[in-house]
Amino acid sequence: MTTRTTGLPRSYLFTWAALVGLLAATMALAYVPMPGPLNLVLALGISAVKALLVLALFMKLFRAPALTRAAAAAGLFWLAVLFALSATDYLTRKVEPAGDLSAPTGREYQQGDR
Amino acid sequence: MSDAAPASQSAPQPEPQYATVEQQAEAASFGMWVFLATEVLFFGGMLLAYTWLRANHPDGVAEAGRHTTVVIGSVNTLVLLTSSFTMAWAVHAAEHGRQKALTRLLSATALLGLLFLGLKGYEYHGEWTEHLVPGLNFHQDGPHARTIELFYFLYFLLTGLHGIHVTIGIVLIALLAVRARRGAFSARYYTPVEVTGLYWHFVDIVWIFLYPLIYLVGRSGP
Amino acid sequence: MTTATVTGKPEEPVVATKNYLTEGGVTLRSWLLTRDHKRIAILYTLSITFFFFVGGAAATLIRLNLVTPPGIFTPDIYNRLFTLHGVIMVWFFLIPSIPNTMGNFLIPLMIGAKDLAFPRLNLLSWYLYVGAGFLALFAILIGGVDTGWTFYTPFSSLYSNGYVVLALAAVLAVGFSSILTGLNFIVTTHRMRAPGMTWYRLPVFVWSNYATSVIMVLATPVLAITLILVAAERLLKVGIFDPALGGDPLLFQHLFWFYSHPAVYIMILPGFGVISEIVPCFARKPLFGYKFVVWSSIAISVIGFFVWAHHMFVAGISLYAGLVFSLLSYVIAVPSAIKVFNWTATLHKGWISFDAPMLYALGFIGLFTIGGLTGLFVANLAFDVHVTDTYFVVAHFHYIMVGGMVSAYFGGLHYWWPKVTGRLYPEWWARIAALLIFFGFNLTFFPQFILGYLGMERRYYSYPPEFQAWNIFSSAGASVLAVGYALPFFYLGWSLFRGKRAGANPWAATGLEWQTPSPPPTHNFDRTPTVTRPPYQYRPEPEPQDV
Ligand SMILES: [Cu+2]
């Protein structure tokens, strides 16, 4: 794994090269028009791959004890809970028209945005 | 986490509550991972806010994203990715007891961190002159002005909190570099290097996700 | 018992001359810079007691105000009083109460370790707590906060005229304190157990604190970020929670309750742990269904994260979300009920002695059951619409928090008092206090169920005159409760100097903590113990041995 002269493990160099490559890819893709939120979804997918590379190789997560992997998984699982259960509200909430209120209600801006 | 004894070169001794040095090292590393799980939810709460904003005001967020300085953001991503690489290399050097390489690699990592902060500061300055700082000097026109303001509200909090993490990381790594120079670490004892490395990689991962959310959103638009 | 082969049989009533109180000096400096988990636990106990009386004083004034309808305070002062009561009691008493005092003291002893994994973090955690406490007191002294402990936006961020940012900073700091504690407990439980101390040989108290720590570590950061968002919104007058800017105030409530509902389990789970230690000891029987008790703790700490929006049924969330969260809230009742069944089954045909810790434990079981069952009432969508923001809810959570948690705290305090101080407390005084607390509590809070059902809104300084009779009952109960809480302060203080020497194991209890002298030596055990048996190996015995 280690080259004698530099003491640099090749896998680290490859990881770095892959990360930079993915950075270039995500940048380029961001400028390609795609429908809806696809640009962002794709960009986040690439981010996930980058993060996985850092976790797996730089942080040696996949060679770490099961306990360590459990700690990392717990963080992600609870983050998923936060998002998923919030979504039960946000994906199904219907904002009722505020009617004839003079004070700002938030709704007019929302409409202006779309 | 950094509760680890400064060990002498030859026979490192564990702190009194531990039976062995190995137990101490395992505890330190596991402690850091638990801390990082905490950090995931710390940033996660704000990412939920971002998600809400993007879902409810997509056009405004897209327009706001086009106000950001994509060049600086991308260069900074490159800087942090590279610093993660030098950090991983530093841990590797520590593992093999190469003191000189360790000192140099830690210094390089800290310097890359400083470069990141410098660029970030320059970017903040630009945003100030463009009247993009909510609550202090925000002034934008157009139908999406309020969403842009909310976007920048989250932008400054996210990058600000990330910046604080970077700053803490730089300080920790610089201190490690000084200790490494004095020969505090050896192939048998380098727990602080390893644990700080985990932290630094995590800070990098946070940025990996912030980068598209801030700089790339809306780029394909008009 | 638990342990069987503990090396170095405890030399009975002889007082250990070298113990954690005397070793390492008795100077203030030696205490303020200590890394000994037992000394840090004492520091926590002292500071938590102080905040308990601060929060209690506010409660007294609230009940005083509610004796007569217009009250004696202005609405503004009343708002500040109940905010003070809530903030102090939730974050400066309930959250840290059992974990940071008894957990800190006992976890290393119970698992046969010399200390927690990170003693310096432990001390840092205490300093954060104390610093945060003083910040909160400072905010109160210069004018107070009127938002309620929940800091709901946009009132807290845009309209309140209190010192909200200071209070937010205080809660943020105490939150980091609790994250550090949780982290320390998790690593300690995983990495510091003595040889032979397998997971299923751990006392339930350790399991409970472990489950609590998981919540502390994973929920508190979300609170932290939420408070930062509110503070930024208040300082900049711009923010994501402001509907006038197109933001969403309900987002605040989602984030806040993502922490604050699990936080209820931070408050109650350690209490479950204490009760699971006391009940087998004073019934002289092994804990019934040990594995069920253990796994129900873990289940609570996980499912506890799935129910938060039951606090928002009438706040404007979607009906679908209401259904989902209502259903999930019913699910969480299952593991809690399992525990109650197991304690009851442990009592069944037990050789029960009614010492003060047991009185508190029995009180806990009864009051927690009432609190839990009324929790099912409010988990029901339709019923909740009727009682939201009424005294019904106030009574419900006080049955859990005060009837449950504070009883457990006092039960544990009496149970381990001999271990911590090396002295016995006066048993009869303790029994009187336990009974006073039980009756005072019920007199205070049962009328509030009725008041809430009849429609009395919480958080108002005044109320329609027809509610006065029940309010007088409630305030009378609060005075009894106050006497009950003040008593231990005196007789426990007395026992520090005059109490009988306790010896290593005055209750003839199992558990590693009873195998070492009282008070324990600095590093807990002369030689690291080896554990060979599961916990709670009690057999019926005529009486705990006399000391
Ligand atoms: Cu709840």
From TrEMBL, chain A:
Compartment(s): Cell membrane
Q: Which InterPro entries match?
A: Caa3_sub_IV (IPR011743), Cyt_c_oxidase_su4_prok (IPR005171)
Q: What are the alphabetically sorted keywords of the record?
A: Cell membrane, Membrane, Transmembrane, Transmembrane helix
Record's keyword annotation contains Protein transport? no
Classification via Pfam families:
COX4_pro
Give the stretches traversing the membrane. 12-32, 38-58, 70-87
User: By what name is this protein known?
Assistant: Oxidase
Annotated membrane topology is:
Multi-pass membrane protein
Superkingdom of origin: Bacteria
Where would one find coiled-coil regions in this protein? none
Is Transmembrane there in the keyword field? yes
Automatic annotation (TrEMBL), chain B:
Transmembrane portions of the chain: 30-50, 70-89, 101-119, 152-178, 198-218
Top-level taxon of origin: Bacteria
| Keyword set, alphabetical order | Membrane, Transmembrane, Transmembrane helix
Tell me what topology the record assigns in the membrane: Multi-pass membrane protein
Q: Which residues form the Heme-copper oxidase subunit III family profile domain?
A: 30-219
Give the species: Azospirillum melinis
Q: Which Pfam families match?
A: COX3
Q: Which family does it belong to?
A: Belongs to the cytochrome c oxidase subunit 3 family.
Q: What PROSITE patterns does this protein map onto? A: COX3
Q: Where in the cell is it found?
A: Cell membrane; Membrane
Q: Which InterPro entries match?
A: Cyt_c/ubiquinol_Oxase_su3 (IPR024791), Cyt_c_oxidase-like_su3 (IPR000298), Cyt_c_oxidase_su3-like_sf (IPR035973), Cyt_c_oxidase_su3_a-hlx (IPR013833)
Subcellular location, principal: membrane
- This chain's protein is named Cytochrome c oxidase subunit 3 family protein
Automatic annotation (TrEMBL), chain C:
According to UniProt, the reaction catalysed is: 4 Fe(II)-[cytochrome c] + O2 + 8 H(+)(in) = 4 Fe(III)-[cytochrome c] + 2 H2O + 4 H(+)(out)
- EC assignment: the record states 7.1.1.9
Q: How does it sit in the membrane?
A: Multi-pass membrane protein
Using the UniProt record, give the first listed, main subcellular location.
membrane
Segments passing through the bilayer: 41-62, 82-111, 123-143, 163-187, 207-231, 251-275, 287-311, 317-338, 359-383, 395-416, 428-450, 470-492
Chain spans, region Disordered: 512-547
Q: Name one GO molecular function term.
A: oxidoreductase activity
Does the record's keyword annotation contain Lyase?
no
Subcellular localization, per the record?
A: Cell membrane; Membrane
UniProt pathway annotation: Energy metabolism; oxidative phosphorylation
Similarity-based family? Belongs to the heme-copper respiratory oxidase family.
What's this chain's function?
Cytochrome c oxidase is the component of the respiratory chain that catalyzes the reduction of oxygen to water. Subunits 1-3 form the functional core of the enzyme complex. CO I is the catalytic subunit of the enzyme. Electrons originating in cytochrome c are transferred via the copper A center of subunit 2 and heme A of subunit 1 to the bimetallic center formed by heme A3 and copper B.
Question: What is this protein's name?
Answer: Cytochrome c oxidase subunit 1
Q: Which gene encodes it?
A: ctaD
